[in-house]
């Protein structure tokens, strides 16, 4: 994670849809930004602040033109805490595996020109692993 080596988008709002390599029962998401010490300006106002995570039912509905999404969590990335922050998701409402995750950044910490995300990790159990581990202790 190096300054400027990030996924940047214009303004203080943006989104990314992440296609997972397999269908996953989601449990948490981790967001990472650089530290103030690593920043050439000494600030990290380009860090995301308010973030919402959705699962996309893209490709699973009969009506392919209609994209359905379900909110799995809203959280605040805190620039005063560790640069790597993990947030639990509420997948128990939809106990199924998903192939797409949407990260919606609603605000940043004050940069009017751009917002940067350095790393996103999606946590969970792959669908075929859950099936193979059922019935085992």
From TrEMBL:
The cellular component terms of Gene Ontology attached to this UniProt record, alphabetical and capped at eight, are: meiotic nuclear membrane microtubule tethering complex; nuclear inner membrane
- Every copy of the SUN domain together lies at 1-127
Question: Is NAD given among the entry's keywords?
Answer: no
GO MF: protein-membrane adaptor activity
Record's subcellular location: Nucleus inner membrane
Q: What is this protein called?
A: SPAG4 protein
Key words, A-Z: Membrane, Transmembrane, Transmembrane helix
Q: Is Transmembrane given among the entry's keywords?
A: yes
Its domain of life? Eukaryota
Q: Per the annotation, which location comes first and is thus the protein's main one?
A: nucleus
Q: SUPFAM superfamilies under this entry?
A: Galactose-binding domain-like
